[in-house]
Design a protein that fits this description.
With 114 residues, this protein is of the alpha+beta class. The chain has a single domain, classed as Winged helix-like DNA-binding domain superfamily/Winged helix DNA-binding domain (Arc Repressor Mutant, subunit A, Orthogonal Bundle). The chain contains 5 helices and 3 strands; from the N terminus they run H-H-E-H-H-E-E-H. It has a 3-stranded antiparallel beta sheet with strand order 1-3-2.
Length: 114
């Protein structure tokens, strides 16, 4: 399926931000992070995510930072000692979770037995 280019304007799927998000979704642990946050229905602390996913602190920090940067997650830091940081899905992240859920259902129906 080829997107049509109208005038000089590229469709969103060919623009840099869309490509960046697709690349990000393909990185290790990103789908797991989004799944856990959607499933929790609330914010999750860094160490709780780390315990639930087999991931190093460095990789988790990078992935969370990337997800916050593109607007899929919200980060809230509380001025406590030690500092408490919680992550939750943004509105965009929640909407993406709904779309991914539909995609995963389709994959289960079409590829589960292979």
């Amino acid at each position: 399926m080829q997107p049509t280019i109208q005038g000089n304007r590229q469709p969103i799927c060919l623009q840099a931000i869309a490509k960046d998000i697709v690349v990000l979704l393909g990185k290790s642990h990103v789908l797991e992070i989004l799944y856990l946050l959607k499933k929790s229905h609330s914010s999750i602390r860094f160490n709780e995510l780390k315990r639930k996913i087999s991931i190093t602190s460095t990789t988790l920090s990078r992935r969370l930072e990337e997800l916050v940067k593109v607007g899929l997650l919200e980060r809230e830091a509380y001025p406590e000692v030690p500092i408490r940081v919680e992550y939750s899905l943004s509105d965009k992240g929640y909407e993406l979770g709904l779309i991914l859920g539909t995609l995963f259902e389709w994959m289960g129906e079409n590829y589960a037995s292979e």
